[in-house]
Amino acid sequence: MKNLALGFLALALFAIPTTMAAQLPALKPLKGTPDPAAPKDPDKFIFILAGDNRPAKASDPPTEVVKMIFKEIKKQSPAFVLWTGDIISGKDPSGPITQQYEDFLKIAAKGDAAVYNAPGNHEMDDKNNCPNETLLNLYKTDTGQTAPYGSFDYGDSHFIALDSDEPAPAGDACNCASQTPAKDKDEKPTGYISANQIALLKQDLKANKSKAHIFIILHRPLVGYEGKDQLCPANVTDLQTIFKDYHNISYVVAGHQHLYYNAQGKDEFGPPPERKDPAKKPFYLVSGGAGAPLHKNGFYHYLIFTVDKDTVSVQLKTVDASTDVN
């Protein structure tokens, strides 16, 4: 009888809903790039950020600019690299997607640093700019990812990559099929982040509230140049509301717009100011100048972030595309 009672107790306990909610999955470095070395000082390190390197056409080779950036990455020897998406031209599920990934990953491996990516519309969407399941699966297989979003820790900081090109529910205003194509093909459809991904993000942020800094990358801007956020307006409102509760979110950095943009202050093309955490709200940046065709106000660049205890500073480094790197 005693054993029977214990058995019933075990079943009852198993049936009690757990209070431990799921968090974002562990984000892995892109295939062929190494895991980062353990920090010598958890409060002081540098990392590099760039994005939007995809060539103009799928048939074009990788640009000289992205080769130059990874050459500089090797010189700088950062703890790791963050990338804001559009690493391939993509868009065609029947096209040479795997070859495009292989071309980029060979270049990325030469930087001798872990590279973490937040996928863009060129990885996730078809020619109609709608999320495509075949492309999603190719992204995961060809880059070695278990999911197109996730997070990881480094030292006393936490890093999050979001997928801003998920399918919106049928009938939703941000569903690709619901949106009328605009004259400017780059304007619509907007990106979308699902309720499931946002729920995981909320739990992830809650679990890392004690971290010194949180850095978030995604492809579509929440706060973009000339007010073009390129993300579902409901997502922008929801995310910014969530972020208000976390004063350790240091920077939210996107790509998509092929330029550099600093949403803080009057100098919109100048480097972001130094910040100290905790602070009232995150700094919003756009970094999309790693080789893709430039916006009229864009220039090729990458960013160097220096974490030093409660302070984070950023260097804006321009890239001269005329230099031969071969």
Provide the spatial order of strands within the biggest beta sheet.
3-2-1-11-12-9
State Rg.
20 Å
What is the makeup of the main sheet? 6 strands, mixed
Strand elements, count = 12
Q: Please give the domain count.
A: 1
- The SSE string, one letter per element, is HEHEHEHHEEHEHEEEEEE
Number of helices: 7
CATH topology category name: Purple Acid Phosphatase, chain A, domain 2
Provide the CATH top-level class: Alpha Beta
Quick structural gist:
The protein has helices spanning 2-15, 64-76, 97-109, 121-124, 133-143, 195-207, 233-243, and strands at residues 44-50, 81-83, 115-117, 150-154, 157-161, 213-217, 249-254, 260-262, 275-276, 283-287, 301-308, 311-318.
Helix/strand layout:
Layout: H1 2-15, E1 44-50, H2 64-76, E2 81-83, H3 97-109, E3 115-117, H4 121-124, H5 133-143, E4 150-154, E5 157-161, H6 195-207, E6 213-217, H7 233-243, E7 249-254, E8 260-262, E9 275-276, E10 283-287, E11 301-308, E12 311-318
Parallel strand pairs: 1-2, 2-3, 5-6, 6-7, 7-10
Antiparallel strand pairs: 1-11, 4-5, 8-10, 9-12, 11-12
How does this model look, in words?
This protein is α/β, with parallel strands linked by helices and about 325 residues long. It has one domain (about 45-320): 4-Layer Sandwich (Purple Acid Phosphatase, chain A, domain 2), CATH 3.60.21.10. It has 7 helices and 12 strands. The strands form 2 sheets. The chain has a 6-stranded mixed beta sheet, with no helix packed on it. A 6-stranded mixed beta sheet has the order 4-5-6-7-10-8, with helices on one face. The longest helix is centred in the N-terminal third of the chain and has 14 residues, at about 1-15. It is globular, with a radius of gyration of 20 Å. The model is unreliable at about 1-20 (pLDDT under 50).
